[in-house]
């Protein structure tokens, strides 16, 4: 035991009055026999040069059995705490005293250490229990465990100051216990002592201890339950009541309490981090009835909450409930992605980065996000993303074994070549935000690094919308490269070996990630189809349908209070050709009236027709046109935005488009006649979505919107941009 750690542990864990804090270590294994470890341990007294603050220790009580199998010694230890002189003066002490009781049982080959503070015992109650035992599977190895509890009442109002002192020194001191044992083991070796015989009963006692010739079974090294410490059970009672099976040999993945296992499979953790992991895992074993997550996953939740056990336990329990409800543990075995995803989702796993992390490549700029959402819905996309994350966890485990070091996260490479306004389709962005929310809540600390390449000018818009939903720790892992900057110093070669850079980024490695492309509209699901499904992609508040008749346009009213707000729209022309207009009026139109055409009476929610502009209104007097008309053909998708210049009432209008006559004759063209025959009863149909966004969300980004391009989307020649209104629309065919 390292006495100074007691005081620092209690300093470190000061939180609120009358709050009990607990510490539990993993099992630390010395690959030396118990007797040799005890010889090294005894050399730490009465003082230890490796612990400068350990000033002295005096024996106050000692007991030895006649056969020398039992040796109990009680010491009073004097510590010179490295604290500010003012604090010591206020506390009225120069030294801190602890009482330590060691109970050595040579017959059982165990040493139990109990310690408590004598100084400030009316303000702070510290109890620590340590034990050395024989390894359950190798009698020539020795295990060490320790647990501690702290109940702090008050500390002169300087609790936060003392806590800061402890934070600085605790982590650097707690591991010295093993270093000290190894120091004295080396000292013994230099003196020629590499073996200490086991205790054997004296000849006179052989008749009384005849069974001692047969080796007694060794009690396994166990975790000391917090409840046992609280109830005051001693170590022998705990060991005697334990019926848990022996743990496997130290260092194997099944030995969850072994320090070597933690270092090999989980990485270097501070003593407090190890304690948090052990205690949270214990709690799950005692209270959780379902499948216990692996230690790597528990550790991710602890890291996500800065090792605050209560906060980590809360989000972990929520995640475990979510996994059970949605059968996420079985998703890789039971769910097959739809063929549309396999063909058009431009993402896949591709080797690993220089740190051994699995590498996932996503060609977002080449992916038709709108088409995927329209063809599949959010549920299928979410399940696919979850399957990717589950596969990532599996690959991390595999790479940990392959590379011989802990790998708990993956790297994601996102290529934005081709990113355009189609990717800023608001329902799609909302679906993306919901997916991010689910992933952040259930897969924390799984993203090791995110490399964003070839970011176009439109990227700031997407980043503005998405970044608030991403955890701060995750955002710090983002590296963004514009144009071909990734090919220069500090670029891709710093993180990925040249041999595995994908061919589409100028590398020599063939990448099997699908190229994406436009999802055929024949695969889209209609609103009518979705009405009959349990999971609806579109609701009335997100995506609506409207009918447009000759002489009866469909109009949507948007009231703007703050100038420079942004009106966004997205619509598909499902049937016929239409003209899209935007108007502004200082006064509100009359309440909307339904279409009165008896021949076109529509009752389904997919065929609304609302007219707002009164027939007595005159253009230029009662209302004004703020954008040039945009002609949209059947089958086209249109996305756009308008930065409002004035407050008031804006009207979005979809109007029936009449076929123009031939320029040289009043007779219609054959193509026009055939096209008009396809529009039954002069009826058109659109599916649309609109939203008003504060200008701050688009600040500095409108220029990017006006200049966006992609391989499968193009700016319509009919699209105009007003310098006064800063509007941009894009048509995708």
Structure report:
Helices cover 29% and strands 24% of the residues. It has 733 residues and is α+β, with helices and mostly antiparallel strands. Strand 6 (110-117) and strand 7 (124-135) form a beta hairpin. Strands 1, 2, 3, 4, 5, 6, 7 and 8 form an eight-stranded antiparallel beta sheet that branches. The protein has 21 helices and 25 strands. The relative contact order is 0.08. The longest helix has 26 residues, at 378-403. Helix 1 (3-12) crosses helix 4, helix 2 crosses helix 5 and helix 10 crosses helix 11 (309-326).
Give the helices and strands, then pairings.
Layout: H1 3-12, E1 19-24, E2 28-30, H2 34-42, E3 54-64, E4 70-79, H3 85-91, E5 96-105, E6 110-117, E7 124-135, E8 138-152, H4 159-173, H5 176-190, H6 226-231, H7 235-241, H8 259-265, H9 271-287, H10 295-304, H11 309-326, H12 331-334, H13 339-344, E9 347-352, E10 358-362, H14 369-376, H15 378-403, E11 410-415, H16 426-442, E12 447-455, H17 459-466, H18 472-475, E13 478-482, H19 527-531, E14 544-549, E15 554-560, E16 566-575, E17 578-585, E18 593-594, E19 610-611, E20 624-625, E21 630-632, E22 637-643, E23 648-656, H20 670-678, E24 683-693, H21 702-706, E25 727-732
